[in-house]
Specification:
The chain is built from seven helices and seven strands. It is an alpha/beta fold. The chain has a single domain, classed as Rossmann fold (3-Layer(aba) Sandwich). A seven-stranded parallel β-sheet has the order 3-2-1-4-5-6-7, with helices on both faces. Helix 4 packs parallel to helix 5. It is globular and about 50 Å long.
Length: 256
C-alpha cells in the first residue's frame, strides 16, 4: 500500500470539539486537508463558524454546533446533528479545554469543578456518545487532548487542578482504548507542551514565559501547525496498530 494513501481521509466524517481556534482549528484543518468532512463543536459557536467557512473553501463539508462539553444534553444533540448531516462519525478529537493559574490553597470548589467538568467529564461524555455510533461501524479513532502537565508539574505557575485533569485524560485514554479495541475503535491522546495559541498569548512575553523556555531543550514554543501531522497520523490508517498511546508534543520538555 502506498504510504501516502494511509493518510487519506476521503469519505471520513469527523468531529473536533473546541475546533474553532488554536490547536483545535489546526487539527480540524488537517483532517479537512486530508479529505474529511469536519463538524466543529464549541461554546462560542461564532468562532467555530469562521473555521467551518475555511473548511468549506477547501472543498469539504463542515458545520458549527454550539455545545458545552460538560452538558450531556448538549453533547447528545451534537452527535444527533452530526449523524443527521454526515450519516456517521469516524473520527472524534476531544480538544475543548480551559486553563487557569490558581494556587491550591486559594482554589475554590467552583474552580476545581469547572476544570474537571470540561476536561474530564467533557471527554467522557463526548467519547461515550460518539463511541456508541462508532460501534455500529466497527471502526473509529478517538483522539483526546492531554498535556505534558499530566506528566510533570509546571513551574512557576500553580495549577494543581489543571495538571490533575490532564493526567486523568491520559489514563482515561488508556482505559478506554482497552475497552473499545474489540470494536476496532482506537483511542489515543496528544499531550502538548507550550504552544503559541490564544490560551498562552497573554503570557508569551513575560518573565514566566522566559522560565518556560529556559526549561525546554528546544528553547522555543511550539507553533500551532506543528500538531497537524500528529493529529492526522492518529486519525488515519497510518496509525492502525496504535491504540492506548499518549504522545508528547513538547519540544523535549519532559526529558529533563
Amino acid at each position: 500500500m502506498n504510504v501516502l494513501s494511509l493518510f487519506d481521509l476521503k469519505g471520513e466524517k469527523a468531529i473536533v470539539t473546541g475546533g474553532g481556534q488554536g490547536l483545535g482549528r489546526e487539527m480540524a484543518l488537517a483532517l479537512a486537508e486530508a479529505g474529511a468532512d469536519v463538524a466543529l463543536a464549541q461554546r462560542h459557536v461564532e468562532v467555530a463558524e469562521k473555521t467551518a467557512d475555511e473548511i468549506k473553501k477547501l472543498g469539504r463539508d463542515s458545520l458549527a454546533i454550539k455545545m458545552d462539553v460538560s452538558k450531556a444534553d448538549d453533547v447528545q444533540n451534537m452527535v444527533n446533528t452530526v449523524i443527521e448531516k454526515f450519516g456517521k462519525i469516524d473520527i472524534l478529537i476531544n480538544n475543548a479545554g480551559i486553563a487557569q493559574g490558581k494556587s491550591f490553597l486559594g482554589m475554590s470548589e467552583e474552580d476545581w469543578d469547572t476544570m474537571m467538568d470540561i476536561h474530564v467529564k467533557g471527554t467522557f461524555l463526548c467519547s461515550q456518545m460518539v463511541a456508541r455510533e462508532m460501534v455500529k461501524l466497527k471502526k473509529g479513532s478517538i483522539i483526546n487532548l492531554s498535556s505534558m502537565s499530566g506528566f510533570i508539574v509546571n513551574r512557576p505557575q500553580k495549577q494543581t487542578h489543571y495538571n490533575t485533569a490532564k493526567a486523568a485524560v491520559a489514563h482515561f485514554t488508556k482505559s478506554l482504548a482497552m475497552e473499545l479495541a474489540k470494536y476496532n475503535i482506537r483511542v489515543n491522546a496528544i499531550a502538548p507542551g507550550y504552544m503559541k495559541t490564544e490560551m498562552t498569548g497573554p503570557v508569551l512575553n513575560t518573565d514566566m514565559a522566559k522560565e518556560w523556555l529556559s526549561l525546554s531543550p528546544m528553547g522555543r514554543f511550539g507553533e500551532p501547525y506543528e500538531i497537524k501531522g500528529l493529529a492526522l497520523y492518529l486519525a488515519s490508517r497510518a496509525s492502525s496498530f496504535v491504540t492506548g498511546s499518549v504522545v508528547l508534543l513538547d519540544g523535549g520538555y519532559c526529558c529533563w
